[in-house]
Amino acid sequence: MIEETADLETCRAIRRAVFIVEQAVPEAEEWDGRDGDAIHLLARDATGAAIGTARILTEGQTGKIGRVAVLASARGTGAGAALIRAALDRLRVMPGISRAKLGAQTHAIGFYEKLGFAAYGPEYDDAGIPHRDMALEF
Q1: In what order do the strands lie in the sheet with 118-126?
Q2: Burial bucket for residue 87 (CB in 10 Å: 0-12, 13-18, 19+)
Q3: What was the pLDDT predicted at 106?
Q4: Which regions of the chain does DSSP assign to beta strands (E)?
Q5: Among 47, 34, 40, residue whose Cα is nearest residue 10
Q6: Which of 15, 45, 47, 135 is 20 to 30 A from residue 74's alpha carbon, by CA?
């Protein structure tokens, strides 16, 4: 189940576990000060436990999906795809938004391609992890 949430504490706990602890992203890079401007999504499993999160920011006609994190114990369950689909559904009903964008870790490009995104531009480093930008036009 995916829900829009104001429970930033839970979202941040998931991001801490995935990005800071597991992937060694520096705290100063993860906590960028933009959470207050974002729409946050929370994925829960059948028991109601929080297992994943994503956030949505908008700029002009573009919705940026970011901070997509699923706990290691819940990977492979479809939670990540459900988060992206929910983010896209949310963006599609926002006035003036005609494009979704995200920065994908290069190992996850295939995952996002299956959800309709196309990679563009060069590979770049974000917090020591190789990424490429990806977009989906509505």
Answers
A1: 2-5, 39-44, 50-59, 62-70, 99-105, 129-137, 118-126
A2: buried
A3: 96
A4: 2-5, 39-44, 50-59, 62-70, 99-105, 118-126, 129-137
A5: 40
A6: 135
- Mean pLDDT of residues grouped by 10 in the chain (138 residues)? 97 98 94 96 97 97 98 96 98 97 96 97 95 97
Distance CA 42, CA 5 (A): 6
- Distance from C-alpha of 53 to C-alpha of 43, rounded to nearest angstrom: 6
Burial label for 89, CB within 10 Å (0-12, 13-18, 19+), is exposed
Structure tokens at 11: 């979202």
State residue 93's pLDDT score: 96
Predicted local confidence at residue 37, as pLDDT: 95
pLDDT of 18 reads 97
Nearest to 20, CA basis, from 128, 125, 108, 124: 128
Q: Residue 14 contacts by C-beta under 8 Å, 6 or more apart in sequence?
A: 50, 51, 52, 53, 69, 70, 71
Res 119: pLDDT? 98
| β 50-59/39-44 pair status | antiparallel
